[in-house]
Design a protein that fits this description.
Largest sheet: 6 strands, antiparallel
Oligomer: single chain
Radius of gyration: 16 Å
Distance between the termini: 40 Å
Number of strands: 6
Strand order of the largest sheet: 1-2-3-4-6-5
Structural class: alpha+beta
Number of helices: 3
Shape: globular
Length: 127
């Protein structure tokens, strides 16, 4: 795997890893890693998802979906998408701590109130 860039688009400096995930496609396995980052011009926190460049990019598809959903409650703003080094990079608003972080902070347990509140916030999708 290629060396991860320190900075994306000249204005976003990468920080700690927030999470990662892998998936399979017709072109083989893919890995995307999400970082906490800082906009060095506006001095605000953002999230950056990096995916090694290959034949198809789920990060690029995610960018287009987020642009279509932009303005919805709980939908992060897609701030930038492009190529950085050997990666596709997607820069997003950082909405807050991840569910995993909250889970660990609460001794690996969610109270019934927390579960109900999470369920209440899930979007309802109808076809």
């Amino acid at each position: 795997m290629d060396k991860v860039p320190i900075q994306v688009d000249g204005r976003f400096r990468l920080g700690d890893v927030l999470g990662s995930g892998s998936y399979d496609s017709t072109f083989g396995p893919h890995l995307a890693v999400v970082y906490c980052a800082r906009n060095i011009i506006k001095n605000n926190a953002v999230a950056i998802k990096l995916e090694p460049i290959n034949h198809s990019s789920s990060v690029q598809r995610e960018y287009h979906i987020l642009k279509n959903l932009e303005g919805g409650i709980g939908i992060p703003h897609a701030l930038w998408f492009g190529r950085e080094s050997a990666y596709h990079a997607l820069v997003l608003d950082l909405l807050g701590p991840s569910l995993h972080h909250i889970f660990l902070t609460n001794n690996r347990k969610f109270s019934l109130d927390t579960v109900v509140n999470l369920g209440d916030q899930l979007p309802i999708v109808s076809f």
